[in-house]
Amino acid sequence: MAAENYEKIQKFRQEVQEKIDNLLGEFADGKVSREQFHALYAHQTLKLQFALEALRSGSTTLIDGSTGETIGIRQSHMGKAIGLMIYHNKTGRFVDTLGSFDVPPPRIAPILNDFSQLMDANRLIDRRVLKVGEKQWLLFAAGRYTTVVTLFHNEPSPEQSREIERLHHDFEVANANLLASTQFDNTRLAYPFNVFIQQKIKRG
User: Fold this and answer.
1) What's the rounded Cα separation, in Å, for the pair 161 and 119?
2) Cα separation of 95 and 51, whole Å?
3) CA pair distance 77, 38, nearest whole angstrom
4) Phi, psi for residue 96 in degrees, rounded to 5
5) Greatest CA separation for the chain
6) 73, 168, 177, 186: least CB-packed within 10 angstroms?
7) How far apart, in whole angstroms, are the C-alpha atoms of residue 50 and residue 73?
8) What is the pLDDT, as a whole number, of residue 203?
9) What are phi and psi of 145, to 5 degrees?
């Protein structure tokens, strides 16, 4: 094998390994979803196999032009918030929907009922992520006054879930006086969620 080819293949192999190591760290930090991780990991592993085959054959043909696909894979498996629905815990009313939320109420009612029972028992409620269709995922996040159900295209990452929870907290703080009542006008509510939904729609 020519020394030039050997160095090129070894450099490619090292770069791929670094990408795998970075991906492991991203998943550990909650920056990518499980679904996104699996797609990206499979892609990088295939590139490692290309490098090993290139070392055996002495040819760089397999590794030439094999870069540049990762961004597309990352984007195609990234969670994108399509819309969300806000449910008032005390009254059982749907407060409002933002973006496009075309999930029928019977699909979300069992989990909302489960959340209500946990609230009545003063138990801690963790976020819940549920796959409801081909590339459709729901994130349920409970707060003091409301529960927010966000519809994602692709599985949301833990980082995206935490961002929804942050916005939910700000929503409840900003609207606490209104949400504490059983009678309120949703046109008077402030919606921090708008930023997240609009950003994801634009990126999508």
Assistant:
1) 20
2) 55
3) 10
4) -170, 165
5) 78
6) 177
7) 18
8) 45
9) -105, -30
Q: Are 166 and 173 in contact (CB under 8 A)?
A: no
User: Which tokens sit at 37?
Assistant: 């991780």
For the stretch 141-171, pLDDT in tens is 999 999 999 999 999 999 999 999 999 999 9
Give Cα 77 distance to the centre of its chain. 9
Instruction: Measure the CA–CA gap between 202 and 175, rounded to whole angstroms.
Output: 27
Which token pair is 32?
Answer: 């990518």
Three-class secondary structure of residue 50 per DSSP: helix
Q: Mean pLDDT across the chain, nearest whole number?
A: 86
Tell me how far apart the alpha carbons of residues 98 and 140 are, in angstroms, rounded to a whole number.
Answer: 15
Structure tokens at 145: 């006054």
Report pTM: 0.75
In this structure, the number of other CB atoms found within 10 A of the CB of residue 84 comes to: 26
153 within 8 A of 203, measured Cβ to Cβ:
no
CA 82 to chain centre: 11
- Evaluate whether 199 touches 79 at the Cβ level (below 8 Å): no
Tokens at 67, concatenated: 């870069």
Structural tokens at position 174: 């900003």
